[in-house]
């Protein structure tokens, strides 16, 4: 009891000194000064140092990161927000760790595909080097394996959507999960499959793991060809109705799997994560006016997302992933009707928080921005 009694005042003194130092550092946080000496020594900010860089395919880069002491770990399938400064401007994007959730050395592995119009992904693909310091968020997201692991698991991915489901596979293997696991991955060709050698090694070393490679632009090799459909599902997982399915990939794959599961009446067994922004629907004349009440700015409704239209009006709302995952761009809709471009759902409730990057206005809309 004496140890606990003496540690509390000591802890209180530590926080008091920290508050004092931060007050003396005003108007900037203490970390703003510490980063001038060594960016990886922080009081509150979470950051990560790039330890290794691997460009295993022509359009991907794999980064091994060492986070600062504030890191609390992640669950397989979750994502982190990574911040990088490009031409003096800090940009943030969401990426899913690909390593098993119980990494013994505490590192994080991110594999990033360099999309043609991706400012951050292109920058990291071209410029990432060991020693680079990145901003990092704590892990978030509900796309995770249940605590009680399912007896049968179907993992479906396409393109760079492989990372969260690979993390699930690696975690299950590391835990020596005895249930059936099928890993179905779609790619244009064999050369586009990230982690191909490791996937084959995992399947060879674990009898309960079945690797299925499907190529959409290659007619030889692999196990399946073409796009996902009922035939593919029957071929790789005839027990799908008894399994839990985890899906992450490009919009076409996501849409195809959802349609099949909806037709089969087993949508409740499908768990998904988006990694690409949904296309903004075009439905004739947009019409209406947007009012950004906190700024006193108004603009004609162009039909784009609320985030795009706010930026076009000269405003700078906070955002992160721009695809409806991280909730960084949430703002309060004061009035009007909005449509979610990912789900198609409309919302007419006033004074409600909505995601700007995946919401389009339907007629007049007022936002507290």
Give the key terms.
disordered N terminus, six-stranded antiparallel sheet, alpha/beta, single chain, 25% helix, globular
What this model shows, in words?
This protein is of the alpha/beta class and 369 residues long. The chain is 25% helix and 30% strand. It has 8 helices and 18 strands. It has a 6-stranded antiparallel sheet. The chain has a 6-stranded parallel sheet with strand order 10-9-8-7-11-12, with helices on both faces. A hairpin with a 5-residue loop joins strand 1 and strand 2 (60-67). The model is unreliable at 1-9 and 30-34 (pLDDT under 50).
- The mean pLDDT is 86
Number of strands: 18
Poorly predicted regions:
1-9, 30-34
The proportion of strand residues reads 25-35%
Order of helices and strands: HHEEEEEHEEHEHEEHEHEEEHEEEE
What is the structural class? Answer: alpha/beta
Q: How many DSSP H or I helices?
A: 8
Specify the overall morphology. globular
Q: State the helicity in percent bands.
A: 10-25%
- Major sheet: 6 strands, antiparallel
Distance between the termini: 52 Å
């Amino acid at each position: 009891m004496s140890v606990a009694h003496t540690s509390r005042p000591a802890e209180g003194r530590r926080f008091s000194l920290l508050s004092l130092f931060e007050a003396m550092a005003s108007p900037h946080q203490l970390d703003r000064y510490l980063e001038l000496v060594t960016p990886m020594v922080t009081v509150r900010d979470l950051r990560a140092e790039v330890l290794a860089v691997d460009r295993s395919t022509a359009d991907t880069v794999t980064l091994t990161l060492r986070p600062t002491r504030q890191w609390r770990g992640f669950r397989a399938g979750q994502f982190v927000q990574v911040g990088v400064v490009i031409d003096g401007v800090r940009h943030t994007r969401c990426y899913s760790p690909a390593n098993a959730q119980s990494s013994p050395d505490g590192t994080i592995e991110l594999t990033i595909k360099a999309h043609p119009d991706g400012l951050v992904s292109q920058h990291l693909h071209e410029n990432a080097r060991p020693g680079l310091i990145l901003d990092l968020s704590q892990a978030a997201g509900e796309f995770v394996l249940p605590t009680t692991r399912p007896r049968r698991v179907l993992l479906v991915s396409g393109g760079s959507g492989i990372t969260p489901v690979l993390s699930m596979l690696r975690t299950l293997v590391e835990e020596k999960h005895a249930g059936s696991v099928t890993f179905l991955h779609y790619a244009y060709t064999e050369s586009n499959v990230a982690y191909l050698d490791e996937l084959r090694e995992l399947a060879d070393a674990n009898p309960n793991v079945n690797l299925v490679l499907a190529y959409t632009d290659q007619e030889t090799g692999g196990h399946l060809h073409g796009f996902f459909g009922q035939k593919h599902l029957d071929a790789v997982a005839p027990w799908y109705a008894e399994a839990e399915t985890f899906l992450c990939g490009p919009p076409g794959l996501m849409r195809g799997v959802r349609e099949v599961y909806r037709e089969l009446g087993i949508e409740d067994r499908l768990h998904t994560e988006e990694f690409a922004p949904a296309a903004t629907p075009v439905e004739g004349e947009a019409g209406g006016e947007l009012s950004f009440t906190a700024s006193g700015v108004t603009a004609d409704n162009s039909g784009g997302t609320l985030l795009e239209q706010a930026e076009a009006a000269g405003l700078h709302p906070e955002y992160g992933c721009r695809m409806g995952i991280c909730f960084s761009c949430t703002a309060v809709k004061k009035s009007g009707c909005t449509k979610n471009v990912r789900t198609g759902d409309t919302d007419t409730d006033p004074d409600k928080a909505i995601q700007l990057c995946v919401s389009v206005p339907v007629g007049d809309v007022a936002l507290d921005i």
